[in-house]
Amino acid sequence: MTSVADDCFCLTFGQAHHIGSLLRPPSLINARKLRASGYITENECQVVEDSAASDAIRLQVRAGFSCINDGEYARDNFWGGFYSSLAGFELSSPPPLRHFRPCLPWGQILLTTGSEPGEHRNRSIACGGNIRHVKSACLQEVRRLQKLLVEQPNIEFKVTLISPTWHHIRYKSGKAYDQSPYTNDSEYFGDLVAAYQDEIADLYNAGLRNIQIDAPELSFFCDENIRAAFKEEGQDPDILLHTYVDVLNQCVAKKASDLHVGLHICRGNSESSYFAIGSYDRIAKEIFENSLQYLPENKNVILGLIASKSPTMEDLEEIKAKVFAAAELVAEAQGNGATKDALIRMGVSLNCGFASHYEGSVIEHQDMVAKLNLVRSLADEIWPGEP
User: 118: phi > 0 → left, psi -120 to 50 → alpha, else beta; which?
Assistant: First the structure.
């Protein structure tokens, strides 16, 4: 069994993190609608995006985060434009509904509404040709962050990348590329991995040193109903999960040694709704080689203990107790009983971004600020003086 590679997945370490997307301000949402309707130009919308991103950076710095992003404000949704930037993929009318897995959220949404959430509601990304990396999907975000942080050299920044398996899992077996030259998963993933490696190399060469790979689809393998649906389709969920972990490992196999990569897994946050249920114990063995209690000594783990879906504030003492309980579990399993040593390799965060789609969620701006401050307060309680 192949776990996610120990030497490849290790986010630049601080004890307080946020996951990625921030709520877009009304000015940006309005500008995007005006751009889509042809009332303003792309450049005019870019000015609004830059201003909003600058505000987002100031918010994160004020909250005390040492590794920040631009709120993902240039994106329509959390997966951004990676797939659409590749040769071989195109944004077009959705494939026939029968190609999608109805047990997964996109299949359910498409069957109900005939379109996907987000700005491009009536279109979907489809693979119709040979996959090649022709331009970077995230280079604009890196350059904007470098520009906006030029006077704050002690603040690091990160960019999130959608996982290489996000597109594939949406479709029934063989349907993710049925309009392309590919005849099996090995051929499809072979070219996709090469393109992913090229994207990582381009971002690294531009100065990026922190990448977070978003793989919420891995939580689907925790959900017994989804697993049962896979089996009814003739797909063994454990074999598919093993394939996905192997693909992730291949994507980062050639990364530079000083490029830090984190793997984010959650149950989704589409307008404050989740995608899957079930314990992470189902997938922990494949991801970590075993569950949290066997966390390898050269891996760090960020515990997503604060909800980004709800404005309800968590109790600081309760979530602090959860962190110590997790550290005790790791320490006990490793046989040295040193909870403080286990804590060194832990951090805390929100459990997801605040706006997986540009429309946002049920929480308001002030709720988001309060949640970010709670993450920082929790980290300061447990690791005083640490970033």
Answer: left
